Amino acid sequence: MSKTDDLIRSALARSKKQLSTYEVAKLAGISWSTANMHCYKLKANGIVDCREEEGKTGAKKVVWWLKK
User: Fold this and answer.
1) Closest Cα to residue 24, out of 60, 55, 65, 56?
2) CB–CB of 36/2 below 8 Å?
3) What is the largest CA-CA distance in the chain?
4) CA–CA separation, 54 vs 12, rounded Å?
5) Bridge partners (DSSP) listed for residue 46
6) How high does pLDDT run on average in the chain?
7) How many CB atoms lie within 10 A of CB 63?
8) Angle made by CA atoms 6, 38, 44, in degrees to the nearest 5
9) Percentage, residues of the chain above pLDDT 70
10) For the whole prediction, is pTM greater than 0.70?
């Protein structure tokens, strides 16, 4: 696991709700593209899960959470 992976896991663990990629990036202090890449890596390793949902503007967004 990289330091960035740890930052993302920590951000998700602190949150009481599922977080969008943008929210993960903000809480972890990293760029959106870095958060996106690492979240998908963590998903491939079975650490986080995600789903796509519609945002307030109608645009699709991905929300993330730690797997139990």
Assistant:
1) 65
2) no
3) 35
4) 20
5) none
6) 96
7) 17
8) 105
9) 100
10) yes
Residues 21/35, Cβ–Cβ less than 8 Å: yes
Q: Report how far residue 26's alpha carbon sits from residue 21's, in angstroms, rounded to the nearest whole number.
A: 9
AA identity, residue 44: A
Q: Which residues pair with 50 in a beta bridge?
A: 64
- C-alpha to C-alpha distance for 43 and 30, rounded to whole angstroms: 18
- DSSP state letters, the chain: --HHHHHHHHHHHH-SS-EEHHHHHHHHTS-HHHHHHHHHHHHHTTSEEEEEEE-TTS-EEEEEEE--
Residue type, 55: G
Asked if residues 4 and 34 have their Cβ atoms less than 8 Å apart, the reply is yes
* Burial degree of 55 (CB within 10 A; 0-12, 13-18, 19+): exposed
